[in-house]
Design goal:
Rossmann fold, eight-stranded mixed beta sheet, two-stranded antiparallel ribbon
């Protein structure tokens, strides 16, 4: 099995387990996720990151575009706009359009180099690149904002997902006094590269911006414990998910560590999309 197919299987099985757990733990979120339409999630394709592959694993409709098409897409506040790394926005007008979209109530999700190319020019004095690019690395992550709905079901008591940092990922520095909430953090990241935040959230106008270091589609993981090296079916068992023939085929020859990392990141993104869909529905009713 080549590495790309292995990653797809990890996300397909991790996404399946994440959705089944969401149906139990957060049924209203699961209902919102099932109602998502392609127009609800606009994904600007990237060179180094591929959030759309996570969306495919979650069987979630979305609209993929390339950056030059952004100016031609009709954005509305009920949408989630995803800008993959590197996030090279072509003009100041596009930056202003993204900023206005969020101010009006839209949600923006960005990864890695989009910190410098989108967040810094569009939302100054919030978060910025600290100037110390990472090596190709994998770090442990910890939940910081336990009560934030985006993190519901992302990490259980026994979970220990790993986060991949590609060479030249951009650590996140929060400006002094900026109203930024740190959702995920990493002591290893701080020790090695000077900043602990892995995923952060801040508001702008009526909308919100969610940013995370490195690539959302995890390219590799590391096994740091005997638990990580267990068969992947053990993670499904931990989550109380029955393994049918289809799931068993995807889990075959996979490790717990691979599926745990993929499933945790898939659940996080599913939470973000479900939260946005529910809020859009509430706005329409009010």
């Amino acid at each position: 099995m080549d590495q790309q197919e292995r990653r797809r299987r990890a996300y397909r099985s991790g996404g399946r387990i994440a959705k089944e757990r969401m149906a139990v733990e957060a049924p209203l979120d699961a209902e919102a996720l099932a109602a998502v339409e392609a127009s609800d999630v606009v994904v600007v394709r990237g060179t180094y990151d591929h959030v759309e592959l996570v969306l495919e694993a979650l069987e979630m409709p979305h609209t993929p575009i390339v950056m030059p098409q952004l100016r031609d897409v009709r954005l509305n506040p009920d949408q989630l706009l995803v800008v993959n790394c590197p996030g090279n926005v072509s003009s100041p007008d596009d930056i202003a359009r993204i900023r206005d979209f969020v101010a009006a109530g839209g949600s923006l999700f960005t990864t890695d180099w989009a910190l410098k190319h989108v967040i810094e020019p569009a939302f100054p004095r919030t978060i910025t690149y600290n100037g110390r690019a990472t090596a190709d690395d994998v770090v442990r992550i910890e939940v910081r904002a336990h009560d934030n709905p985006f993190l519901t079901g992302v990490m259980g008591e026994s979970d220990d997902p790993q986060w991949w940092l590609e060479a030249s990922s951009y650590p996140i520095r929060i400006h002094d006094g900026a109203p930024v909430e740190v959702l995920l953090t990493s002591r290893e990241l701080e020790d090695k590269y000077g900043q602990a935040p892995v995923a952060v959230l801040f508001g702008h106008g009526s909308g919100e911006v969610f940013h995370m270091i490195s690539h959302y589609y995890l390219q590799r993981t590391e096994f740091r414990s005997r638990r990580h090296s267990q068969a992947a079916a053990a993670w499904a068992a931990e989550k109380g998910v029955a393994v049918d023939a289809r799931l068993a085929a995807d889990l075959a020859d996979m490790s717990l560590g691979e599926v745990e990392s993929a499933g945790s990141s898939a659940r996080l993104f599913a939470n973000v999309v479900a939260h946005k869909k529910r809020r859009a529905a509430e706005n329409k009713r009010s």
